[in-house]
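Question (not urgent): is this output format expected?
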Amino acid sequence: MKYEYENKNELREISTQIAVLVMKFNMAFSKNDSKLQEEALHELENIEKRVGDFKPIIKINVED
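Got this back:
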């Protein structure tokens, strides 16, 4: 039996957003830019909500 997520593109989008956010945090802290840090924290809150609301849709393939 094999299974996969039908909504795996949503997981990829969330993963990409997190990767971009990590780069934004690195830049904000290296430049000591408080405005950019606040923006990144706001984006982090949005991503946290999206991850919390994520409901996996599992597609099951039964093989003989």
